[in-house]
Amino acid sequence: MRVLGIDPGSRYCGFGVVEDAGGTRVRHLAHGVLALSESAPMEERLRALHQGLTRELSAHRPDFVAVEDVFHARNARSALVLGQARGVALLAAVQYGARVRSFEPSVIMQAVTGTGRAEKEQVGRMVSVLLGISPFHGRLDASDALAAAICGLLRANDPVLRLAR
Amino acid sequence: MRVLGIDPGSRYCGFGVVEDAGGTRVRHLAHGVLALSESAPMEERLRALHQGLTRELSAHRPDFVAVEDVFHARNARSALVLGQARGVALLAAVQYGARVRSFEPSVIMQAVTGTGRAEKEQVGRMVSVLLGISPFHGRLDASDALAAAICGLLRANDPVLRLAR
To answer: Of the residues A19, A69, A141, A144, which is catalytic?
Structure first.
């Protein structure tokens, strides 16, 4: 099974692709960040995000898409802006035809670090260790997306989590 | 000029279409509500919303799309959910190729009632008076969308508001 993870944002949207390599092994296939112009009107940023994600979905052909859920935001305004990007990411995934599921940040952290209360940097380090790739520096959108993808691979068929939203 | 207004929501999304009828007159063309299944997963609701809005945009061929902005939500969680629907609405509008603009609720109220602090019901009454259509009963998603459309018609070329987001 191949999973594409998405860490959606209205300025940077991370994506990462992994696949099942037999047993408990996970193979890294790709990762990247879509950077959206801060000066462009919101609707143009959303169009660029939709185009970018649709392109990556077509290129990597995942069976399953795991999207990081967000319960916490600084305030209602930033939650609304983040929601706009997240809605477009979910739309691109469902239009592509993959199974889609949202995972709470604590569930993703648990999947890659063994605890739901890890630091963002610890998640980044564990992603590079688990996948055998170079450590991440600077922005962590891509490593967060890879963490979501790893979580998706482990939890795709979990019946309890399938019911949770 | 023809304007399609949208009052986006994750459960009900109102739309309304008006056009310039010369002078200060506004002609009503259509309105309706897209009802999204509450039991469906969010990504399926967003797909249905995108399909429904794309269908209405193609049917009514507006030059301009006015989307009600939302600054206030009960909490960050509901703002996130509302943002998802709003992002998909903005995407459908920009993909269709119309000019798109967001208007704050107070600006829309001002346009149809003369005050930015009107009651929701007053907006509904003024919309039916201005357009010469039957009063609205029950849910006001469609009349809110028509109010956004009327506001868009009046403000489409306002240079100050074009810069505001």
So the answer is: A141
How far apart are the C-alpha atoms of B40 and B87, rounded to whole Å?
19
| pLDDT at position A134 | 92
Query: Which residues in chain B touch residue A41, judged by CB atoms under 8 angstroms apart?
Result: 100, 165
Please give the model's pTM, rounded to 2 decimal places. 0.91
Per the model's pLDDT, the better-predicted residue between B160 and B73 turns out to be B73
Q: Which residues 6+ apart lie within 8 Å of B18 measured at CB?
A: B2, B3, B5, B26, B27, B28, B29, B131, B146, B149, B150, B153
Pairing mode of beta strands B2-7, A12-20: unpaired
Which residues contact residue B90 at a Cβ distance below 8 angstroms, ignoring those fewer than 6 apart? A42, A43, A46, A84, B67, B100, B102
- A141-155 vs A120-131: helix axis angle to the nearest 10? 60
CA distance B37 to B131: 30
ipTM score assigned to the predicted complex: 0.88
- Asked if B6 and B68 touch (Cβ cutoff 8 Å), the reply is yes
pLDDT bucket at B159, cuts 50 / 70 / 90: low
Burial of B106 (0-12, 13-18, 19+ CB in 10 A): middle
Q: Residue A59: CB partners within 8 Å, gap ≥ 6?
A: A30
Q: Which residues of B touch A102 (CB under 8 A)?
A: 42
Active site includes B158?
no
Of all helices (H) and strands (E), which one includes residue A19?
strand A12-20
Three-state SS across B16-48? Answer: EEEEECCCCCEEEEEEEEEECCCCCCHHHHHHH
Let me know: does B153 contact B112? Beta carbons within 8 Å.
no
